[in-house]
Amino acid sequence: MSHCHDEHEGHGHGHGHGHSHGAHDHSDDITPALQNSLYKQIDFDAINTLNESSSGSGSKICKKTWDERLNPEPELCSDADEQLLMHIPFTAQIRLHSVIIRTSQTDSAPLTLKLFINRDDLDFGTASEVQPTQTLSLSQTNDIQEVPVKRALFNTVRSLDLFFEDNWGRGDEDETRISYLGFKGEWMALNREPINFMYEAAANPSDHKMVSGVRGEVGSRLGGAGGGGNGM
């Protein structure tokens, strides 16, 4: 197996239940990219990735903040073959808008991505057989891809499974590599316990307030992580 390294161009589109176009590079579009980020709604500790060559690497690429999106490491690499299956739970109910991903311009870039919502029973066998919520085609590029989903199919998401079925090697490359993964959308808290949530008070991302509320209120949150980074 070749060593995972960064050779990270492009747009993507979806098909299956829905068909979508318009994925584009947000590398220099920082403020809009942070709006509707679901970074803070990801349950990082509960992420499970099947066939990852390094334990925990699936979670680590999701933990990267938006500021870290171009960093080559950590990187998720497949192990025994080109397939990867990620289970990503959320701490809130999500309405998914798009998947944000960075791969590479090599044959190890994933090609077919099947999305499943609210499943906790998937393995490679079932993911290959059952109908996905939506199937997306990814570009062979080292740019940041924002791949829209058909929102009507992703209104009540509590967990998302991502099945990277193949890569651009089309059978000739056993390693699939992904260096960044994020999501955009809207969220609603899962229960009615009191919470504090962030909301955008002005166009300036640094100008926001803490508001006490109750779970069940809809909000969007600017992502962030320790050290002042902006999450995605």
UniProtKB/TrEMBL annotation:
Transmembrane segments: none
Cited InterPro entries: Galactose-bd-like_sf (IPR008979), PITH1-like (IPR045099), PITH_dom (IPR010400), PITH_dom_sf (IPR037047)
Domain PITH span(s) in chain numbering: 27-203
GO cellular component terms given for this protein: cytoplasm; nucleus
Basic and acidic residues: bias regions: 1-12
Tree of life domain: Eukaryota
Coiled coil: none
Region (Disordered): 1-30
Family of the protein in this entry: Belongs to the PITHD1 family.
Protein name from the UniProt record: DUF1000-domain-containing protein
Organism: Aureobasidium pullulans (Black yeast)
